[in-house]
């Protein structure tokens, strides 16, 4: 509302993308259209602090995300977390992005419900909203309940109408995306057992997986 006329809206979706799949892409595209984003950047994590080591190299994960978003503006890739020598903390990413943006530009951090529930374990999590708004994607497998610390944050910061997000940062909104109950874990399992993942990942990503023999059980 208080955005200047030249202000931009940039969305970011971080993840391991091991591999990127239609759940990520459809969510990203829907958010981009819903909010008229100038860019929605997919940001592959380098060494995710909360997760097991990804199953394929950072280089492969990045290559697959690049293939997935080619010719799909405003979706694009931001490789800054892979260029960093230390673990990928979202707060560091937000600070570096903010340094490149104008004061009025909106930065929208897009997270799935499962990721959002884990927010209180993130490094300097209470500062995240100083740098961005948070958009929570409702995910069909959302079984978990938000911890108390998050419920307090939601009471203070959530807006019921996502389109009413105002200013460059500081608020939380929920968005509903077409439910696609697919996960990278499922895709890795299918591939490891020799099954097809066609239609769960873009064809270009599937071609890359096949060409590089990724996720297949070694024999
Ligand atoms: P894994 O199965 O390896 O845990 P994942 O499929 O959950 O992976 P991530 O790379 O961890 O994928 O996810 C990045 C972001 O995308 C997270 O915020 C996550 O909640 C969200 N996300 C992943 N899959 C979906 C989906 N099917 N629908 C909506 N959001 C999703």
TrEMBL record:
It comes from the Bacteria. Keywords: ATP-binding, NAD, Nucleotide-binding, Nucleotidyltransferase, Pyridine nucleotide biosynthesis, Transferase. CDD domains: NMNAT (cd02165). GO terms for biological process: NAD+ biosynthetic process. One of its GO terms (molecular function) is nicotinate-nucleotide adenylyltransferase activity. Catalyzes the reversible adenylation of nicotinate mononucleotide (NaMN) to nicotinic acid adenine dinucleotide (NaAD). This is Probable nicotinate-nucleotide adenylyltransferase.
